[in-house]
Specification:
single chain; 337 residues; alpha/beta; two-stranded antiparallel ribbon; 13 helices; 16% strand
Length: 337
């Protein structure tokens, strides 16, 4: 099981670059940069030329607000600069996340994402072979590639695509059409076994693919630190992330499976009223224990193996770019495992 790290970009490109370089030095297998307040592709562009081994990926990059043509060009440039180490992680977000999108544009999310992936690959094929671009779907249509806008072939054109998946339909689509899936960060072992993995198996059967052709990545929330202050800071961050995710409609199935429906509704109401502190405080300790890894830094990796060995191909520590000291301690724990 490979060990990755993910962080939200800080807005300070030099700081983010140093975090990626340090992750490579520590032996992590991949760095995923998630999209939130800042664009994930900017630090990856710098890291592509400043690193040599580590896989570089965008996680949950907004798909629908960007044209597939825009995303295709960004990914193509990053694949070229990183010499094939770049992976494109896409997320389907709802109107609560992206302003300026009509609600009717978000119907049939799975169908729209399927076409998004298909059109990406059609565009990349034209980039690589100069074949005539012809993609016609219900949501996306591309009929022309002027030479002026064609960046030309690269050495590693098979760019892997990963989807963010919460509900079984998106997990199925990922297994049918993509190279990997980033599971929801508020997953539980029960939800993985009962919902995510069966959906992956069905998607692979539909596409007549083997399990070895697909990668399941589990984002891992960690509450740890060298002292009580760091631990409290990590706990605050994790509670905020769980509260935020639990208030998103896509996570209702997870909440319902564990009998947390009333909490989910409470969080939705609090979010609507922008009562962020109350949202964080509503997350109980038993929910934290079910979702996050809570232990000393040197024991984080062993706890991850105890919980997820045999379930995942990669685990991805969800940390801030400034948490490099914690990364160092976790890496040391893996080396001694």
């Amino acid at each position: 099981m490979q060990l990755d790290v993910a962080f939200m970009p800080s807005g300070n490109l030099g700081h983010d670059l140093e975090a990626v370089k340090r992750a490579e030095q520590l032996g992590f297998d991949a760095v995923w940069v998630t999209e939130a307040a800042h664009n994930p592709f900017f630090p990856l562009t710098l890291a592509a030329k400043e690193t040599s081994r580590i896989r570089l990926g965008a996680q949950g990059a907004l798909a629908f607000p960007r044209s597939p043509m825009v995303t295709a060009q960004i990914a193509w440039d990053l694949a070229r600069q990183s010499e094939g180490r770049f992976a494109l992680g896409l997320g389907a977000r709802t109107p609560t996340h992206s302003a300026g999108v009509r609600s009717d544009e978000w119907e049939d999310t799975v169908g729209r994402m399927r076409e998004y992936i298909e059109s990406l690959r059609a565009i990349w094929n034209t980039f690589q072979t100069d074949a005539r671009l012809r993609y016609r779907g219900q949501y996306y249509r591309f009929r022309l590639m002027a030479p002026f806008f064609n960046p030309g072939p690269i050495s590693h054109p098979a760019i892997p695509i990963y989807l963010d998946g919460v509900n079984p339909e998106m997990c199925w689509l990922a297994a049918e059409t993509c190279q990997g899936l980033h599971a929801a960060e508020i997953h539980t072992v029960a939800y993985l076994r009962d919902v995510v993995i069966p959906a992956i198996d069905e998607g692979l059967r539909t596409a007549d693919r083997s399990r070895s052709e697909f990668t399941l990545v589990l984002p891992i929330l960690v509450i740890s630190g060298a002292n009580e202050v760091e631990q409290q800071r990590a706990a605050k961050t994790v509670r905020e992330r769980i509260a935020y995710c639990a208030a998103i409609p896509e996570h209702r199935r997870i909440m319902a499976q564990h009998g947390w429906e009333s909490l989910a509704q409470e969080l939705i109401t609090l979010a609507r009223d922008k009562r962020w502190n109350e949202m964080r405080n509503a997350i109980r300790d038993d929910i934290i224990e079910e979702i996050a890894i809570v232990t000393e830094p040197r024991h984080v990796y062993s706890r991850i193996m105890e919980r997820y060995d045999g379930l995942a191909d990669r685990v991805c520590l969800l940390l801030h770019a400034g948490s490099i000291e914690l990364c160092e301690a976790i890496a040391a724990g893996r080396d001694s495992f």
